[in-house]
Amino acid sequence: MSGTAMPEPAAYDALPDGVVVAGADQRVTVMNPAAERLLRRTAEQSLGRPYTEVLALQDAEGRDWWACTRPFDGLTTRTRQPERMLQLPDGRHLLVTSSFIRDPADRSTVRALVVAFRDTRTRDRQERERAELISIMAHDLRSPLASVKGFTATLLRAWERFNDEQKKQMLETVNADADRMTRLIGDLLDVSRIDAGRLELRPQVVDLVDLVRKAVDGRSAAEDARDRSFHVVATESLPETWADPDKVAQILGNLLENAVRHGAGAVTVRIDPEPEGGGTVIRVADEGDGVPAGAEQRVFLKFWRAGTGRGTGLGLFIVKGLTEAHRGRVQVGSGPSGGAEFTVVLPTNTPDFI
Q1: Which regions of the chain are under pLDDT 70?
Q2: Given this model, what pLDDT does residue 1 score?
Q3: In this structure, how many other beta carbons lie within 10 angstroms of the beta carbon of residue 32?
Q4: What is the pLDDT of residue 3?
Q5: Which residue of 26, 101, 105, 236 sits 20 to 30 Å from the alpha carbon of 115, by its own alpha carbon?
Q6: Do strands 28-31 and 241-243 pair parallel, antiparallel, or not at all (unpaired)?
Q7: What is the reported pTM?
Q8: According to the model, what pLDDT value does residue 6 have?
Q9: Phi, psi of 165 (to 5 degrees)
Q10: d(CA 237, CA 146)
């Protein structure tokens, strides 16, 4: 911002961050609504007052921030100060950054000091989510890792004591647990990509019915689903759909796992053309108790779990992120048998939809 014209005061009003501007006389000339909210004082109380009074900041050691940094008579080479956490007199913390608007003809003169700040709630929430994610993933990885370590150590130590059938069963368990760890790590990477908006799709024409049948076959063969029945009901004529087959398979896998883990009874997957938009509708329904009333939107939040339910709480968050990456939509309601029914609508798309 150095050497540029100052924006009109109204230009700051729509910003989500607080902004306080002090002129060359070191008195406040601009205070936007976000700054009023964060500082808990009105513009009427602040305009014309010294900026050090309106924005009395201290560093982590309790020192006066402005006395330490001297924005108006300090180093003439500075044009800004990077964001850092500072404290208000009432103990609340803000993330603060400053820009110095210098006179182009006289670099030692600061025409205006622009201070932008925001509260730390967003960062604190992100840090809590990160810590919770690490805790959940560490807990969920520990069980299959212990199984892999136990069986491989046993086989290495006493290979001759087991017959071929026993060895096969142990190795199948190791393989299944390795697959589970791979899925957990994949979930972690997908959450990171969804949050950062960096999902990469490789679209091609997909056979949605074939993807559904493969997903159902794989899930029904899992140990925790062997006592459950699965049904696939598909309309013969479906529109041609461009999508990433791996991501669609992941959507289906997470929905089926959710139906097995949190639902009951038979799991039915229906595939129909969308009546209005020309896409395809995939419905996954079970016969359990359904989604708790009022939780229809929360189920797609990161880490949401029903009661003391097992799992990472990331599966449905990933379903939503992957579906929306395909420009589709997902929702949950009650199925024909009273259980939960998740509905994914995938548009037909075109090869260049991403």
Answers
A1: 1-7, 9, 305-311, 354
A2: 44
A3: 23
A4: 46
A5: 105
A6: unpaired
A7: 0.62
A8: 62
A9: -65, -40
A10: 47
Whole-angstrom Cα distance, residue 194 to residue 141?
21
Beta-carbon contacts of residue 227 (< 8 Å; ≥ 6 apart): none
Q: Which pLDDT does position 288 carry in this prediction?
A: 87
Distance CA 23, CA 48 (A): 9
Q: Within 10 A of 203 (CB to CB), how many other CB atoms are there?
A: 18
Domains and CATH numbers, the chain: 9-119 (3.30.450.20), 123-196 (1.10.287.130), 204-346 (3.30.565.10)
pLDDT at 309 (0 to 100)? 54
Q: Which of 340, 327, 225 is nearest to 283 (CA)?
A: 340
Tell me the DSSP string of 5-74: PPPPGGGGTT-SSEEEEEETTSBEEEE-HHHHHHHTS-HHHHTTSBHHHHT--B-TTS-BHHHHH-TTTS
pLDDT for residue 306: 64
| Rounded-to-integer distance, Cα 258 and Cα 184, Å | 15
Helices (H), 163-314: 164-196, 208-220, 245-262
Beta-strand (E) ranges in the chain? 18-23, 28-31, 80-87, 93-103, 106-119, 204-206, 230-234, 241-243, 267-273, 280-285, 329-334, 340-346
Q: How far apart are CA 36 and CA 19, in angstroms?
A: 9
**Strand, coil or helix: what is 236?**
coil
Q: How many CB atoms lie within 10 A of CB 107?
A: 14
Residue with tokens 């709630």: 121
DSSP state, residue 298: G
